[in-house]
Amino acid sequence: MRTLCLAFAVAALTAATGICAPFVPASDDTVIERLPESRDPAMAAMKKLRAAQRRAPGDLALATAYARRAIEASRATGDPRPLGHAQAALGPWWNADDAPRDALLLRATIKQSLHDFDGSLRDLDRLVARAPGDAQALLTRATVRSVVGRHDEARTDCDRLALRVAPLIAAACRASADGATARAARAEEALSRALDVDRDTQRAVRVWALTLAGEIAARRGAAAVAEARFRDAFALDATDGYLIGAYADLLIDTGRPSDAIRLLEPHARHDALLLRLVIAGAQVPARGARNAEERAELAARVDAARRRGDAVHRREEARYALTVEGDASRAVALARANFAVQKEPADLRLLVDAASAAGDASALALARAWIDRTGLVDVRSATGGVRA
User: Fold this and answer.
1) Which among 20, 118, 228, 370 is least surrounded, fewest beta carbons within 10 Å?
2) What is the reported pTM?
3) Closest by Cα among 96, 57, 73, 59 to 15
4) Are 139 and 161 in contact (CB under 8 A)?
């Protein structure tokens, strides 16, 4: 899942679930978070913007500017807490059906990122009803519909969008919808043609399209093609957390943990990337002591998220339970709960792998039913797409 004008909706494609109750520490000595403002100019600027917004809470321009920055911060770090700040900034418009367009679009994006997909879609439906040609709203709605497995509806939005945007955006929109179905091969071919022809779109769009193409190639077992796509995207943006995670997964899947470690080490602040670093590090014996430290750090972060009541990273927690803790029973329970909310290929693969490890026939039947419905096959999963 990743947002800014059309790039803003594109960027919102990776995200996270409901707004959590506040965590109350047991004592005043408990460290909740070490704030990076003094080391990070972007965070310091964001703090100043938040202060200005608080002095003028009814200023829509300030509120939306801050909300966008907070969403970007959440995406960059994998931390859902800045989304709560974004919601607070939009407080005057949060529950208003007639909220201004920008506030409503940001509200939908925040809800999407918090896995309130039904709420996000209601807001996006309002936007499209007001302005049927709103390309941003159509792209965001197509994205959310794809995430929850409503691929036909997502494709309809993409078809409407195609009349209003660059060919690469239209092709990527369709690939996002069709790449998780039996149409994946055709979607990949169309996206490849658009990538070859349309080289003038903004960088964020091209990174999104290349990452999508790489993911589809990886699912069909074309590792070399997938890596080429990821490398091209990485050359454009070496900081995109979603891309780094997808590329690292490919390296881990193809038995190259050392390469994955080199890719991931600069980004260990991001929880989902630290998880992958721990998984890769466990496969390199010479890294034993360092891996133990990273595993302890990851365990502390997972525990802190649990204590906060943070259900945002259920996919990551399920993968942590399966691959780090070796607790297949817990992993399959978390994977099922995650799959009830979102149904991207990564969610299906996790469900299959956890169910296979746990010997959970019911969970495997759930996965089979989804594959029969969509036609998706992921050769990397525990049963090669659950068709065996």
Assistant:
1) 118
2) 0.86
3) 73
4) yes
